Amino acid sequence: MAKTTSNYKIQNIVATTSLEKPIPLTKLARTQPNTEYNPETFPGLVLRIKEPKSAVLVFSSGNLVCTGTKSVAQVRKVIQAVIKQLKKINVSITAKPKITVQNIVASGTIDLKLNLNFLALEMENTEYEPEQFPGLVYKLIEPNATFLLFSNGKLVCTGTKNKQQLEDSMTQLLKNVKIAQKEYKK
Questions:
Q1: Cα separation, 165 vs 145, whole angstroms
Q2: Do 65 and 49 form a contact (C-beta atoms < 8 A)?
Q3: 95-99-103 Cα angle (round to 5)
Q4: CA distance linking residue 126 with residue 137, whole number of Å
Q5: Is the pLDDT of residue 1 over 50?
Q6: CB neighbours of residue 44 within 10 Å
Q7: Domain 103-185 belongs to what topology?
Q8: pTM (2 decimals)?
Q9: How far is CA 129 from CA 135, 141, 142, 146, in A?
Q10: Based on C-alpha coordinates, what's the Rg of the chain?
Q11: Pairing of strands 100-110, 154-160
Q12: Which of 76, 114, 120, 146 is a good FRET partner for 155, with 20 to 30 A between their CA atoms?
């Protein structure tokens, strides 16, 4: 039997860090053009970075949430860009920010046509309501990941925190789908 493969591409990494210093958000918003700050509706300031394209939530505590990057190296670049902008308003960051990846979103394909009705019956931890949404939601417990599966083999994976977890969850998904598909062919 031919080996079934999957391939994927990281679309978004959500990461957090602390600059370990209070940030004057009003001053940052007033002096930097790439910011959005409405403290009445949300306590964080949104800072948009052009390269690599991303958005960073900056909180007055010095905590940051970075979204939109596709690698941890890009997250580091974005945080350096934030630190550079803070320097312009005389906020000097001396701590080396420790980055924690909270979530990786990847999209990809399995080279299989999927019978979602059958997978919903055969596999545990699935939700499938084709009248509501054309994809099947499959929650993998170990490693922890959530997949959206489509009948053409396309997929979205979310919930992993590093590349190894992503690889492992893709491998486990493939194994589980193959077992279920074998049942289908009986």
A1: 8
A2: no
A3: 160
A4: 5
A5: no
A6: 20
A7: TATA-Binding Protein (3.30.310)
A8: 0.89
A9: 8, 21, 24, 16
A10: 21
A11: antiparallel
A12: 76
DSSP 15: E
- Rounded to whole angstroms, the Cα distance separating 145 from 166 reads 8
The sign one gets for the Cα dihedral 96, 64, 155, 127 is positive
Close Cβ partners of 28 (under 8 Å, ≥ 6 residues apart)? 35, 37, 45, 47, 58, 85, 86, 89
Nearest residue to 75 via CA among 85, 86, 84, 64: 64
Matching residue, tokens 């939109």: 68
Domain 20-96, CATH class in plain words: alpha beta
Same topology for domains 20-96 and 103-185, yes or no? yes
pLDDT at 182: 73
Which residue ranges make up each domain of the chain? Answer: 20-96, 103-185
What does the pLDDT look like over 116-149, one tens digit per residue?
Answer: 999 999 999 999 999 999 999 999 998 899 999 9
Task: In whole angstroms, give the CA distance from residue 97 to residue 76.
Answer: 9
Structure tokens belonging to residue 32: 């930097």
pLDDT of residue 184: 60
Given a contact cutoff of 8 angstroms between Cβ atoms, the answer to whether 14 and 100 are in contact is no
